[in-house]
Write a structure and sequence with these properties.
By secondary structure, the chain is of the alpha/beta class. Helix content is 19%, strand content 36%.
């Protein structure tokens, strides 16, 4: 039976203030590779282990933050079926022609209740060089920097996350892996379209369209420690870590790119199956849920967004 629906995160476009500094950070420090630079100045990056043309797009702007995040669907026909479902839900849908980004086919775009733009696409050219698939070595391009293996997920801040939850589960067929409930209502949600603990997450915030962090997967806890060594060696601004989450159980460290966008590198986390119940946290254990070892939140983690 052919696959259908949303497969996984595809790419994210991040606004940066200083392009050369951003390229150095994301390539030399996080460990991505520059694929190409577009005629409009956008820079396209990927990890050595990603098969699609790119996963990170950097756009020079006057203020930091995020433009959009895109998810890959299984087939071109899924774009048509999702367009109908999205419109039936009440959201306007726009079309982006194939080739607007190098190596990416036609896309659908829409803005959700939290103020974030989400896109769907079905086709991406395979990266060059592509990770080997016949008698493959563990790596083809030699790892460098923190050794990021993929763009893994993003956490967004914005209002109306109850409606965000409703949309992602009813229209895009995501599942709610974890949630934080406060006395005044829902505070945060972790959503998955596959078998990871989360592919996108949202926290309630009065300002729409905000980025909390862009996250990259590392191989193991030792790799997170190596990332901390790099952060210290190059005086990268750090938020918190190395530590561990109770929510998702990932081993993590948070830091900032030169424009002030928060990055995360992490390892681990549990496997999610579609029949599993939603894990729920409340205000009595929220500190332990976010930072399992410290058992309390830090102010920057709560308040600094772009």
């Amino acid at each position: 039976m052919a696959m259908t629906g949303v497969l996984r995160p595809g790419y994210i476009q991040v606004r940066v203030l200083d392009m050369p500094a951003a390229i150095e950070h994301y390539t030399k420090r996080i460990g991505l590779h520059q694929v190409t630079e577009g005629a409009d100045g956008r820079v396209y990056l990927k990890s050595a282990e990603e098969f699609d043309h790119h996963s990170i797009i950097l756009r020079r702007a006057d203020h930091a933050g995020v433009d959009f995040m895109a998810f890959k669907v299984a087939a071109d026909s899924d774009l048509d079926s999702f367009e109908k479902r999205i419109k039936d839900y009440g959201y306007a849908v726009d079309h982006v022609a194939a080739g607007e980004q190098p190596g990416v086919g036609r896309r659908l775009g829409f803005t959700i209740a939290s103020g974030h733009r989400i896109e769907l696409f079905a086709h991406a050219d395979q990266s060059d060089p592509m990770p080997p698939v016949h008698n493959p070595d563990i790596w083809n391009l030699e790892p460098h920097g923190m050794g990021a293996r993929r763009f893994d997920h993003a956490l967004f801040y914005g209002p109306d996350i109850e409606k965000v939850l409703d949309f992602f589960t009813k229209v895009l067929d995501f599942r709610l892996a974890e949630r934080v409930d406060m006395p005044d209502g829902l505070l945060a949600i972790w959503l998955t379209c596959g078998m990871k603990a989360h592919d996108i997450a949202f926290v309630k915030h009065p300002e729409p369209g905000k980025l909390h962090h862009v996250s990259f997967d590392l191989e193991n806890w030792q790799s997170v420690g190596h990332a901390a060594d790099i952060i210290t060696r190059y005086d990268i601004s750090i938020d918190i870590g190395p530590t561990r989450h109770g929510i998702t159980r990932g081993q993590t460290i948070y830091f900032f790119d030169p424009s002030g966008n928060r990055n995360e590198v992490f390892a681990g986390g549990y496997t999610y199956y579609p029949d599993l119940p939603t894990r729920t946290w409340d205000e009595t254990q929220i500190g332990k849920g976010i930072f399992y070892y410290e058992r309390q939140l830090n102010e920057a983690f709560l308040s600094v967004v772009t």
